Amino acid sequence: MSNALAIAAVTAVLRDLLNDGLINQNVASNLGNTVTVTVLPPDLVLTSNDNQQEDKLNLFLYQVTPNPGWRNVGLPSRNSNGDRVTNPPLAVDLHYLLTAYSKEPFHSEILLGYAMQLLHETPVLTRNAIRTALGPPSPPFNGSDLPTAYQSLSAAALADQVEQIKIAPQPMGTEEMSKLWSALQTHYRPTAAYQVSVVLIESQRSTKSALPVRQYNLLALPFQTPVIERVQATSGEDSVDVGSPLLIRGQQLLGNQTRVRLNTLEVSLPDIQSVLVGMDLPAVNDRQISLPLASPPFPAGSLRAGVQSLQVLHEVNFDTPADPHRAIESNVAAFVLRPGIARNINNDFQITLSPAPSEPNQLPSHFLDLQLTLNTSPEQRVQILLNQTTAVNPLSYRFSAEPRTTDTTALRFHLRHVQPGRYLIRVQVDGATSMLLSDPDAASPTFRQYIAPSVVMPP
Question: Of 415, 399, 400, which is closest to residue 362 (Cα–Cα)?
Fold first, then answer.
C-alpha cells in the first residue's frame, strides 16, 4: 500500500507523463515556443512579473473525495478489547484541472489537445512508469538539483499498492466550471477535468494477528427459520394454567436438534417427548409442538405467573468438544401463564381466614392465607380480588399481598373493613389472573354461575 506521500506522488507522475509526452511529440518546435508543465494553483501560474513568453500546461489538484468502493475495506480496525487488528486503507479519488496558458492564438488549444490525447492513450499508470518517474534520475544527473519535496516522493510506495492508478475524463458542466473558476479568483483558460482513482493510503502501525486455524469444520444445511405463529393452551384458550400443556403452532419448528426456551429456561425436544408419553396430546411435528408446563421437563418451582416469552431454537452439531452450537432462533412469542390456588388432598382450596388487629369502631380485619400453584418473587405485583355473591348490590375489593423477601407460593393478604358475606377469590400476579370455577350442572339453582374458590367473611 501507499503512504501519505501518495497524493503528491500521483501529481508528480502525471506531470512527468505530460512533460515527456510533449517532448516526444516535439510540441515546442511545432509551436515555435518553449512549453512548461506546472502543478500550481491557477492563480499562481501567471505572476505579475510574467510576460507570458512561455506556453504553459498546468495540472491542478482541486478536490479529493473518498472512493466509495474501498472506503469500508478492512473495517472494523479494532476488536472488542480496543486492540488494532487491521490497518484499513484511506481510499481517495483525485480530481484535477488540466489548463493550457498562452498569449498566442491557437497555442492553448494545441497544448490542451496534445495533453488530452496523451491522457486518453494512457488510461492506467503502470508500475514501471511510476518507478521511473519517482526514481533517481539517470546519469549524468544525480538528482541534487531536484526540489527537496520531490526527492522524498520516491518513498511513497505508489507502485506497490494493490490497485493501479486509473485516469478518466470527468464531465463538468458550464455552471460547475463557472463556480469553480470564480472560487479560484483568476481568469478562465481552456480546461479539461480528470479523475484519478484510486489512491490507497495505509498506515504501517503494528496490528494484532490471530493464530492460524488448525482445523476447519464446515457443515452445510438447508436454511430454514422456525416461525412461531401462535401459542395457546391445548384447549384453545390464549391464557394457560400451570400444569396444562402448551401448544406451539408455527412453521419449520423441527430442526437437527430442537430446543424450546421459556424465558431463561431451556428444554430439549427429547426431554419434552419423554414427558408426553402416554398423554393424549397433539403429536409433535414441523408445525406444532406440545409443551407440558410442569416438572418435568422444567425444574420444580422455576415457573412464575405472568407474561412469558417463548422461542424455538435449532442447534447444530459439528462434532467438536463445544457442541452443540446455537444456529437459528425463531421469533419471540408471548403468552400469559395464569396462577392457580392450590388444593389439598381432599381437593379443597388451601385458603385460611384468621382474625387480624382491627381499628376501633370499624369492621373487623382478617388475614387471608393461601397457597398458589406457582412461585412468586418479591418483585412481582400480587393482588387478591374479592367479589361478593350474597347481596343484591354486590361489593368488590382489591388488596395487595404482604411484602415477601424470598420466592414463595405462600401469600398473606390483610383484609380491612370488608363487609360480611360470601366472596369469590381471584389472585392476580403481574396482570395474570387466576380462573374461577362454575357450576357444571346446567339444571342447578346457580344456573352455571361462578361458585369457587370463595371465602365467607364473618360479621
Answer: 415
Location of C-alpha cell 478489547: 81
User: For residue 459, what is its C-alpha cell?
Assistant: 360479621
| Contacts for 267 with CB less than 8 Å, ≥ 6 apart | 259, 260, 291, 297, 298
Amino acid type, 133? A
For residue 360, the Cα-to-chain-centroid distance in whole angstroms is 64
Mean residue pLDDT across the chain: 87
- pLDDT tens, 49-106? 555 568 899 999 999 999 998 988 877 788 888 888 888 889 999 999 999 999 889 9
Residue 447 confidence class, pLDDT cut points 50, 70, 90:
low
Report the SS3 class of residue 224.
coil
Q: With 0-12 CB in 10 A as exposed, 13-18 as middle and 19+ as buried, what is 233?
A: middle
Omega of the bond prior to 140 within 30 degrees of 0, cis?
yes
C-alpha 417/C-alpha 399 separation (Å) is 11
Cα(263)–Cα(61) distance, integer angstroms: 61
Q: Kindly state the cell numbers that stand for 76.
A: 472494523
Burial status of residue 110 (CB atoms within 10 A of its CB: 0-12, 13-18, 19 or more): middle
According to the model, what pLDDT value does residue 155 have?
Answer: 84
Q: How many helices (H) and strands (E) does the chain have?
A: 8, 25
DSSP line for 65-113: EE-TTTTTTT---B-TTS-B-----EEEEEEEEEEEE-SSTTHHHHHHH
State residue 96's pLDDT score: 96
Distance CA 55, CA 108 (A): 8
Residue-wise pLDDT for 103-154, tens only, equals: 889 999 999 999 999 999 999 999 999 998 888 766 555 555 566 677 788 8
In the structure, what pLDDT confidence band is assigned to residue 205 with cuts at 50, 70 and 90?
Answer: confident
CA distance 415 to 427: 14
For helices 127-134 and 6-24, the axis angle rounded to 10 degrees is 90
Q: Who's near 58: CB < 8 A, 6+ residues apart? A: 37, 38, 39, 40, 42, 45, 97, 98, 99, 100, 101
Would residue 112 be called left, alpha or beta, if left means φ above 0 and alpha means ψ between -120 and 50 degrees? alpha
Domains of the chain: 6-201 (no CATH), 227-338 (2.60.40.10), 351-457 (2.60.40)
> Which residues does residue 192 pair with via DSSP β-bridges, in sequence order?
98
Q: How far apart are CA 329 and CA 222, in angstroms?
A: 15
DSSP of 105-173? TTHHHHHHHHHHHHHHS--EE-HHHHHHHHSPPPTT--STTS-HHHHGGGGG-GGGSSSPEEEEE----
What is this structure's pTM?
Answer: 0.53
